[in-house]
Amino acid sequence: MQKFPATDIERSLPVLKIKELGQRKCDDCSDRCSDSIDADYIIDNEDIIFSWSGTLMVDVWCGGKCGLNQHLFKVTPLKNYPRWFVYYWTNRHLKKFKLIAKDKAVTMGHIRRGDLENAEVAIPTNQNL
Q1: What pTM was computed for the model?
Q2: 78 vs 18, which has greater pLDDT?
Q3: Minimum mean pLDDT among 11-15, 16-20, 70-74, 75-79: which range?
Q4: How far is Cα 57 from Cα 34, in angstroms, rounded to an integer?
Q5: What span, in angstroms and rounded, lies between the C-alpha atoms of 95 and 101?
Q6: In this structure, how many other beta carbons lie within 10 angstroms of the beta carbon of residue 94?
Q7: How many H helices and E strands in the chain?
Q8: Cα–Cα dist 66/13, whole Å
Q9: Span 25-35, pLDDT tens digits
Q10: Parallel, antiparallel or unpaired: strands 48-51 and 72-75
Q11: Torsion angle, alpha carbons of 26, 40, 84, 88, to 10
Q12: How far apart are CA 42 and CA 124, in angstroms?
């Protein structure tokens, strides 16, 4: 969000960083960004947020509209899968992701896209969704 600084407080959003995700809300100390950022980087209530660097965690955001910062992914379910299903599987792999990040930690542990691609998910038949 450094490339999209808030120039007008009235037309700005708080920035969702790992700190805000951990405390489950933005506050007066949260950085702010322009509200004209691309829609892909806007977080709203009920979005699944995954922190892939530093403190690895996954949560369903309930802290209001904000801008997505680096080190966080907005996990967007494909239309065929309910949000709870995607949250469950992301959370299910979290322990393994934390072990991977711990092994790579020099300054700040993280996982890579390949680690996500290698995470397997059991897909039920449509009648079970």
Answers
A1: 0.81
A2: 18
A3: 75-79
A4: 26
A5: 10
A6: 15
A7: 4, 7
A8: 5
A9: 999 999 999 99
A10: antiparallel
A11: -80
A12: 30
Let me know: does 57 contact 30? Beta carbons within 8 Å: no
Secondary structure of residue 43 in the 3-state scheme: strand
Give the integer Cα–Cα distance in Å for 42 and 97. Answer: 25
- Cβ-based neighbours of 21, under 8 Å, separated by 6 or more: 49, 51, 57, 59, 61, 72
The domains located in the chain, with CATH, are: 9-116 (3.90.220.20)
Please give the structure tokens belonging to residue 82: 């309910």
Pairing status of strand 12-16 against strand 48-51: unpaired
pLDDT by residue (tens digit) across 33-90? 999 999 999 999 999 999 887 788 899 999 999 999 988 989 888 888 899 998 998 8
